Amino acid sequence: MPQPAVSHDVLIHDAHAPSRLGLGVLLRAQPWVGRCHLAGDLSTAVGLARTHRPSVAVVDVSSAGGFAGHHCDALRRVHTTLAIVLTARC
């Protein structure tokens, strides 16, 4: 008997709306993604992480500037087991 597919919620934290929305569309098409939560700023990302407890956060470091570590720390404070993937636009 086949195992049920694992579904993960994903948090996308990117200040650039086209990137945030585009990545959300791409990820929603993946069978392992249940829901995508989109945040354009740190306070929204922290609130979504606290409320929805996503499995993975995709954090754009170009949006965070020199504060990428601060953004990751803030997310980890509200969700200690959150896996964080860092991305950057060129």
What does this structure look like?
The chain is an alpha/beta fold. Helix content is 42%, strand content 26%. The protein is built from four helices and four strands. Strands 2-1-3-4 form a four-stranded parallel beta sheet, sandwiched between helices. Helix 1 links the parallel strand 1 and strand 2.
Structural descriptors:
4 helices; alpha/beta; single chain; 90 residues; 42% helix
Helix/strand layout:
Blueprint lengths: L7 E6 L3 H12 L4 E7 L2 H11 L3 E5 H4 L3 H11 L4 E5 L3
Parallel strand pairs: 1-2, 1-3, 3-4
Helix pairs in contact: 2-4
Task: Compute the separation of the termini in Å.
Answer: 45 Å
- Percent of residues in beta strands: 25-35%
Number of helices: 4
Gyration radius, to the nearest Å?
13 Å
Strand order of the largest sheet: 2-1-3-4
Biggest sheet descriptor: 4 strands, parallel
Based on secondary structure, the structural category is: alpha/beta
- Average pLDDT metric: 90
Sequence stretches where pLDDT stays below 50 over 5 or more residues: none
The H/E string reads: EHEHEHHE
In short:
The protein is α/β, with parallel strands linked by helices and 90 residues long. The protein contains four helices and four strands, in the order E-H-E-H-E-H-H-E. The protein has a four-stranded parallel sheet, sandwiched between helices.
